[in-house]
Write a structure and sequence with these properties.
Blueprint: H1 6-20, H2 63-76, E1 86-91, E2 96-101, H3 113-126, H4 172-176, E3 205-210, E4 214-222, H5 226-239, E5 265-266, E6 275-276
Antiparallel strand pairs: 1-2, 1-4, 3-4, 5-6
């Protein structure tokens, strides 16, 4: 559905008013420079080439490669509800490079999970670092990888990052406005080449690290329980060969899986949210898998 903000509506009205004051033109095309009055208009040029996402998508999977890897990762994971999935990849600037689904059509997985997958990709990329972050005595010398699952406890009331999930709303115009729903999950998805934004704080988002531990973007997966989303995202990242995190810092306590999901939440005697022993825990879900069985990073 095409949705326009009130600001854009006002600007559109203003633009129309301005056009109404201009003299009428018989033809929108203009004659070649130096042509005599009344000369035929120059033919229209070729259509502009497709836009290249800001920052580019070099080193990131194509639409076809992401879809194939998502199908394989979904088939390989047995935890959760066994649903089909959405996946989105963003570059380091947070611009969407590809959106795919694993089912036979866009309705074969939860429609609401499409944009959630983009939120997760944006979040994991936005709050992860590599070693280039370290300079002049500040930054992370080893880098720091945070999955969206690692953020759950920290954003609860009283947590050190409380309110983070409200800090960067999704750009709904970018998520929905052009192309219509028939393009969802295809190479023409409306989110392509847009920074959709959004912050998501449960499992399914991981930063992408190329060889040498260089962060190149993020991947988000959604469509099942948040725990299964994480497990499938983990397998997807490995299938894309973008899990070169060996030596990168994390909060999981497992050097072989630095940004893995952590299940260390116990009941809160005072009620409300449970308490994470390490501060970065995530609740268990229905039919939860064992995170220690996920492949070690490279």
């Amino acid at each position: 559905m095409k949705r326009l903000s009130s600001f854009r509506m006002v600007m559109s009205v203003a633009a129309l008013a301005g056009f109404a004051s201009l003299p009428a033109r018989a033809n929108a095309q203009t004659p070649p420079a130096g042509a005599p009055p009344g000369a035929p208009a120059a033919p229209a040029g070729p259509p502009a080439p497709p836009a290249v996402p800001r920052g580019g998508c070099q080193g990131l999977p194509s639409h076809a490669a992401l879809k194939a890897a998502l199908v394989a990762a979904t088939q390989a994971e047995s935890s959760g509800l066994n649903n089909h999935m959405w996946a989105t990849v963003v570059n380091r600037d947070g611009v969407v490079c590809a959106v795919v689904f694993s089912g036979v059509n866009r309705g074969a997985q939860w429609p609401g999970s499409r944009v959630i997958s983009a939120q997760k990709a944006n979040t994991a990329n936005a709050f992860s670092l590599d070693s280039t972050s370290s300079s002049n005595g500040s930054g992370q010398a080893k880098g720091l990888a945070l999955s969206t699952a690692n953020l759950y406890s920290a954003v609860q009331p009283g947590g050190s990052l409380y309110g983070l999930q409200h800090s960067n709303p999704v750009d709904t115009d970018a998520a929905y406005e052009s192309g219509g729903s028939t393009g969802f999950g295809t190479g023409g998805d409306p989110m392509f080449n847009h920074a959709v934004g959004g912050v998501n704080v449960f499992g399914g988002g991981l930063a992408l690290y190329a060889k040498g531990g260089t962060i190149v973007g993020g991947v988000g997966v959604s469509g099942d329980t948040s725990c299964a989303d994480h497990f499938i995202a983990w397998r997807l990242r490995q299938g894309l060969n973008l899990d070169f995190l060996a030596g990168v810092g994390g909060v999981s306590g497992d050097a072989a899986r630095p940004d893995n999901i952590v299940f260390d939440i116990t009941d809160n005697p005072a009620g409300g949210s449970g308490v994470s022993k390490g501060g970065f825990g995530h609740p268990k879900c229905l039919n939860t898998g064992d995170p220690s069985t996920l492949p070690a990073v490279r």
